[in-house]
Every structure is written in C-alpha cells, then in structure tokens.
Amino acid sequence: MGNDGGSIPGRQDLVKVHKKKKKNVSDSFIKSSKSQYCSLSKDPLKKPIVGDKLGQLYNKKNILECLLNKNFPKIFNHITSLKDVKDLNCNISKSGKIECRISLEEFSGINKFYFLWSCGCVISKNSIDELNMKDKCIVCGTPFKNSDLISMNYTNEEKEKIRLEILKEKNERKKRKNKGNNENKDNSNLGKKRIRI
Q1: Tens digits of per-residue pLDDT, 67-124?
Q2: Which residue has better confidence, 70 or 13?
Q3: How does residue 25 score in pLDDT terms, banded at 50, 70 and 90?
C-alpha cells in the first residue's frame, strides 16, 4: 500500500462523530411568545404593561424592580428610566394575549400591531388601514406623528439598529448637558476672578 499517489485517510475520515442536532424552534412560536411574555423576565404579561421604542413588551413591575436594583441585563441598556418605556393602553384576552382596542383582534406576534408613543394605545395594522388613521388616535383622540407609531413586530436587525440610535441620542444629550454645565462653571469662575482683581 502507498506510493500509488493516493491520500492517507485521517481520523475524521475513518471515525464518524455524531453531532448533536440543534432544536429548531419555529419563528411563529418565537413571535407568539413575544406577544404573551415579558421580554425581561419571561413571565406572562399582566397589566400594567409597558413597551419600549423597540416594540418589546414588559411587565411594569419587572422594569421597576430592575431600575431600583440597577441590575438590567446588557441587552436592555437602552432603558435607564421610566421615560424610556410607555404605559400601554390595551386589553388582554382570556387566552392571555394582547388585543387591539378597536377590532379586538389578538396580537399573535405574526400579525402586525403598533402602539402609539404619544398615548400608549395598542392598535392592529388592519384597524389603522381600515379606519385611515393618519394623525389622531382613534381610541383616545390624542394627536400623533408617524415617529410615534411603534411596531411590535420589528425584526432583530431592526431592533438592534433602533437600539444603537437610542444609545447614540442619549450619549449626545449627555455630552450637551455636560458641556452646558462646564460652561456655567467657567462663567461663574470668571466672574469671581474679576471681583478679586
């Protein structure tokens, strides 16, 4: 054997290793679980429910606990105060799912749903389209802009993009605030020096 120009088989060619099969969880199951469970604690959603700019839903109790204990997981670092979440004005069906305030359609995670940042009303896309809702909430009458319409069905890529934008905006606000504080300190020091001379 050998010297025939062939190759020598290695261990990986001779021994078959059984790889563990990954469990495939269907997208519909993941989406439906997002519509019924708190994104932070994975507990079933109970009123009062809040939502963030990423369209994620939380039990307000869990958000308050994390804010008080200052132990948010890193993936939720865009939430630093209650100003970063909005109380949602919604119904919960007998099956534990959120319902549209107008059509009573259940949010399954697959069908498109929105909430308004200006008032917190939860509305299905079908209701928005059918009633031609443009600048005023049909449920409570609060005026809103297109930027106030938060989708509850963002993809992970869209969520990450929005999260980075939120963090960038917060950092810019912090820099402006620090810059303003430093200028005020400098101006007050200048006035003191003038008096002493």
Answers
A1: 898 888 888 888 888 988 999 988 888 887 888 888 888 888 788 898 999 998 999 8
A2: 70
A3: low
Report how far apart, in Å, the C-alpha atoms of 79 and of each of 12, 61, 148 are: 49, 14, 17
How far apart are the C-alpha atoms of 69 and 110, rounded to whole Å?
34
Sheet holding 113-116: strands in order across? 122-124, 113-116, 149-151
Q: Smallest Cα–Cα separation from 129: which of 113, 153, 106?
A: 113
Could you tell me which residues come within 8 angstroms of residue 43 by beta carbon, excluding any fewer than 6 positions away?
Answer: 37, 59, 62
| 123, containing H or E segment | strand 122-124
First-last CA distance in the chain = 101
pLDDT at 76: 86
H or E segment to which residue 126 belongs = helix 125-130
Q: From the CB of residue 113, how many other CB atoms can be counted at a distance below 10 Å?
A: 27
Report the alpha-carbon distance of residue 52 to residue 115 in Å, rounded: 10
Prediction pTM value: 0.70
pLDDT at 157 over 90: no
> φ and ψ at 145, to 5 degrees?
-105, 165
Structure letter (DSSP) for residue 79: -
Three-state SS across 9-34?
A: CCHHHHCCCCCCCCCCCCHHHHHHHH
